[in-house]
């Protein structure tokens, strides 16, 4: 146990950080696994920093978890080392005192926060944290030119010494240096801090329920009057029953039925002895025309459930090269999704990844059909190759490698400008960051507070005519450049840039366990509305297998623990997916954003979507999506299976209805 001692060395802090002047508690934990509701904290360190950036104290200790310590090869904490350490309850009070009235800071802060929340709940104590800050999320906003966003990489980039990786105290000290350096960069960019409000979490019951075994069969549809039940049918139960509810569910599951907790238009039958009871399930069944059977009839039918169609395993055929965006339902027909219809295929330089080969990219733009295979048997004449013509040349990409921020303009004008940037090979930014190379000023952009940062950052500012001829010299022909950058900076992790509808194959995992894939959505900070990101785990029929595969702020993790919703700040949320652990019935994970109140995505502007292979890893692909004018729901992106390969698609499909309409289309009934 390390005593709490103040630092004697002066902090390399700078003036002008008044907006970031908080009392900070920097935390690092080493754990026996990755699941907070199941695994335990083995080691914890807390370093406290005052508003002036000076360290005020530190504390660290090993902990005896009372269980197997897990991946010793990662953290080096054997059961023998932990044997004489205190249990968490013995140090919880001291840790709580260090956290009290401070902002908790961690790298991937939700991970550390969730583990602390569970440890405090097990000790029947209150976790005194009201706000947290994730340095990973903050660095994603700053976007420094580092290989990736891992703690060690950022330490090297910012010049912070690191002596023992995966040692809680050393990691917390390194985190302190990274926080100071990142706050200085955030001040230069005038970025708001991505602080996350933390509700009280004293109750040990906030963990998800134990995993439910997915039904092995596809839903065959509605039960027919007088007909048999078929494996895979979705069954809901409501009201009082003579047989216990647990027994009815167990017998149904054993017979191959899929018992749901709500009724939707995809429900095969509702079991109830009180069809006219007026329960929400009964009302919904009546509205959707779902067949209703009583308990006695249902028990008889359970004795002769017919064989169903199993969910397909992953196909072994090669992945196709094109795929359309699936419509949800006829009842949720989309409105126009972007303010302009031009979507030329463009990609930037491939990012650094662990894949053995470059990913395959598909764009929605029609292309000429592939030439037929030329037979190679003897005696077959092989035609001479056609001489290339100018029409065969790839489109000009003068903005390749550039990241352009659009300021001002009406929503249609700004959306059209961002689409044009992608057409020209660039990437459209939604916020000011270190990776931004240019700004385009539309009408009213002079009022944007970020415009005043451009001269200090050395960023050229152009008018809208620059997008017509971006190679023009700064002599009044299409540019009002306030600064000239001689060349595009070489960013070491430039992701693929996908247009709306663009698709990229995900590389096969190169290590075990495979990293979680992340879909991160980010937008400009909003004062008048809140945006929630949600996810649906879908089967072959574009339906949830069971209700718990709808992941949202109220249920941020599905029971199997394969899909998590991570809140990284008020303008950024992430869906993390363990693709290797999804069952064969799961064919797609759809991610959407929903606006509360009566606001629409016209008020929000562009949403940036990024696919990242693991926490802090270099991004694989990025898309900037604009809805049109009236949409309250935006289908952002999806992971989906194509043969043996998982793919990422940037969707960008908007809908006028809210979350309830979107969820019903996927087979989940929720209240508006």
Jot down its keywords.
alpha/beta, Nucleotidyltransferase, domain 5, Rossmann fold, 4 domains, seven-stranded antiparallel sheet, six-stranded mixed sheet, 14 helices, 21% strand, globular, disordered N terminus
Level-2 CATH architecture of the largest domain: 2-Layer Sandwich
| Average pLDDT figure | 81
Strand content: 15-25%
Q: Which CATH class of the largest domain applies here?
A: Alpha Beta
Helix content: 10-25%
CATH topology of the largest domain: Nucleotidyltransferase, domain 5
**Which structural class best describes the helix and strand composition?**
alpha/beta
The figure for the number of domains is 4
Task: Please name the fourth-level CATH homologous superfamily of the largest domain.
Answer: Ribonuclease H-like superfamily/Ribonuclease H
Write down how many β-strands occur, each being a DSSP E stretch of 2 or more residues: 27
Compute the CA-based radius of gyration.
27 Å
Q: Could you give the order of strands across the largest sheet?
A: 11-17-27-26-23-19-20
Q: Outline the biggest β-sheet.
A: 7 strands, antiparallel
- Give the N-to-C terminal Cα separation: 52 Å
């Amino acid at each position: 146990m390390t005593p709490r001692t103040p630092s004697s060395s002066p902090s390399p802090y700078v003036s002008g950080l008044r907006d970031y002047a908080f009392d900070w508690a920097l935390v690092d934990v080493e754990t026996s696994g990755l699941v907070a509701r199941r695994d335990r904290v083995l080691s914890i360190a807390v370093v406290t920093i005052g508003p002036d950036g000076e360290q005020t104290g530190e504390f660290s200790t090993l902990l005896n978890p009372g269980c197997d310590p897990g991946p010793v090869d990662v953290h080096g904490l054997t059961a023998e080392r932990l044997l004489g350490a205190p249990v968490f309850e013995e140090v919880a009070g001291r840790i709580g005192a260090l956290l009290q009235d401070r902002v908790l800071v961690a790298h991937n802060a939700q991970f550390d926060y969730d583990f602390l929340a569970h440890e405090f709940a097990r000790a029947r104590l209150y976790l005194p944290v009201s706000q947290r800050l994730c340095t990973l999320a903050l660095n994603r906003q700053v976007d420094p030119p580092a290989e990736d966003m891992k703690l060690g990489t950022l330490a090297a980039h910012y010049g912070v010494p690191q002596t023992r990786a995966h040692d809680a105290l050393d990691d917390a000290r390194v985190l302190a240096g990274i926080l100071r350096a990142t706050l200085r960069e955030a001040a230069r960019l005038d970025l708001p801090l991505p602080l996350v409000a933390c509700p009280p979490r004293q109750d040990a019951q906030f963990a998800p329920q134990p995993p439910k075994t997915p039904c092995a069969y596809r839903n065959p549809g509605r039960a027919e009057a007088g007909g048999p039940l078929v494996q895979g049918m979705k069954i809901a139960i409501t009201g009082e029953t003579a047989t216990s509810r647990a027994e009815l569910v167990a017998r149904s599951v054993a017979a191959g039925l899929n018992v749901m907790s709500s009724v939707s238009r995809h429900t095969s039958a509702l079991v109830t002895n009180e069809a006219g009871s007026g329960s929400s399930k009964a009302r919904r069944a009546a509205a959707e025309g779902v067949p209703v059977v009583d308990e006695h009839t249902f028990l008889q039918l359970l004795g002769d459930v017919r064989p169903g169609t199993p969910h397909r395993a992953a196909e072994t055929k090669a992945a196709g090269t094109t795929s359309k965006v699936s419509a949800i339902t006829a009842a949720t027909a989309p409105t126009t999704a972007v303010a302009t219809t031009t979507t030329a295929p463009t990609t930037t330089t491939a990012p650094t990844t662990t894949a053995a080969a470059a990913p395959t990219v598909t764009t929605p733009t029609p292309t000429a059909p592939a030439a037929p295979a030329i037979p190679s048997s003897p005696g077959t004449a092989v035609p001479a190759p056609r001489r290339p013509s100018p029409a065969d040349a790839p489109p000009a990409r003068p903005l390749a490698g550039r990241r352009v921020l659009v300021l001002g303009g009406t929503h249609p004008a700004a959306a059209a400008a961002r689409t044009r940037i992608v057409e020209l090979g660039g990437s459209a930014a939604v916020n000011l960051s270190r990776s931004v190379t240019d700004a385009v000023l539309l009408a009213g952009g002079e009022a944007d507070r970020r415009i005043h940062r451009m001269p200090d950052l050395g960023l050229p500012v152009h008018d809208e005519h620059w997008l017509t001829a971006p190679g023009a010299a700064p002599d009044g022909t299409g540019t009002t450049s306030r600064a000239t950058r001689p060349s595009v900076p070489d960013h070491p992790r430039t992701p693929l840039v996908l247009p709306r509808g663009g698709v990229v194959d995900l590389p096969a995992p190169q290590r075990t366990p495979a990293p979680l894939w992340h879909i991160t959505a980010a937008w400009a900070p909003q004062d008048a509305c809140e945006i929630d990101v949600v996810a649906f785990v879908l089967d072959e029929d574009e339906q949830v297998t069971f209700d718990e595969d709808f992941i949202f702020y109220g249920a941020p993790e599905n029971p199997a623990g394969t899909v998590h919703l991570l809140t990284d700040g008020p303008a950024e949320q992430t869906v993390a997916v363990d693709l290797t652990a999804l069952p064969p019935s799961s064919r797609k994970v759809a991610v959407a954003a929903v606006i509360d109140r009566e606001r629409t995505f016209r008020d929000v502007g562009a949403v940036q979507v990024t696919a990242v292979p693991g926490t802090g890893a270099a991004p694989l692909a990025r898309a900037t999506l604009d809805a049109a004018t009236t949409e309250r729901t935006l289908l952002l992106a999806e992971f989906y299976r194509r043969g043996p390969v998982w793919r990422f698609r940037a969707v960008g499909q908007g809908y006028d209805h809210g979350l309830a309409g979107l969820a019903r289309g996927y087979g989940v009934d929720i209240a508006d």
